[in-house]
């Protein structure tokens, strides 16, 4: 009888400790803002670097923020890329690049047309308030304001960037 009670007690103690450990781990991750469904910052950086390497080898790498999530979903899976036949992205590359693009882009509004050109993108226009943009907007024109665009650095601007602002009436 005494051994049976001891076994039950040990079993109960083990169960309680296991549940507490699981809850403690979950609460610890939650309190630090970690979401197991979200990619880590390291994976997002790796995805951005791979995006620059893969896409920036043919054209300026466009920041994820400038196009919608829906646009990126189509672009990185379509082998007919603006009239050029591409090899499909290897699964490993896709699994690193897609979380980066998905995390830093935004969905379009219901009923909004999916933009496939920068000039059609509401997000691109929001990121360029008051800037007089050439028409049509081409990827090559980005360098006139963003000298480090090839490295996905769209924060650094040319010293005379104010010349591109639309004059406002007094």
TrEMBL record:
InterPro entries named among the record's database cross-references: Dihaem_cytochrome-c
Superkingdom as given in the UniProt entry: Bacteria
A UniProt-annotated Pfam family: DHC
Protein name (database record): Cytochrome C
Species of origin: Pseudocalidococcus azoricus BACA0444
């Amino acid at each position: 009888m005494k051994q049976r009670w001891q076994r039950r007690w040990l079993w109960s103690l083990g169960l309680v400790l296991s549940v507490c450990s699981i809850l403690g781990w979950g609460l610890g991750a939650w309190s630090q803002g970690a979401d197991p469904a979200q990619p880590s910052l390291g994976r997002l950086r790796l995805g951005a670097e791979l995006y620059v390497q893969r896409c920036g080898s043919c054209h300026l790498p466009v920041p994820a923020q400038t196009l919608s999530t829906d646009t990126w979903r189509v672009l990185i899976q379509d082998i007919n890329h603006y009239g050029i036949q591409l090899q499909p992205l290897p699964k490993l590359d896709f699994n690193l690049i897609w979380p980066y693009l998905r995390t830093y882009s935004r969905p379009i509004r219901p009923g909004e047309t999916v933009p496939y050109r920068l000039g059609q993108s509401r997000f691109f226009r929001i990121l360029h308030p008051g800037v007089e943009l050439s028409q049509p907007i081409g990827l090559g024109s980005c360098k006139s304001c963003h000298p480090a665009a090839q490295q996905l650095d769209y924060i650094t601007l040319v010293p005379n960037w104010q010349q591109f602002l639309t004059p406002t009436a007094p």
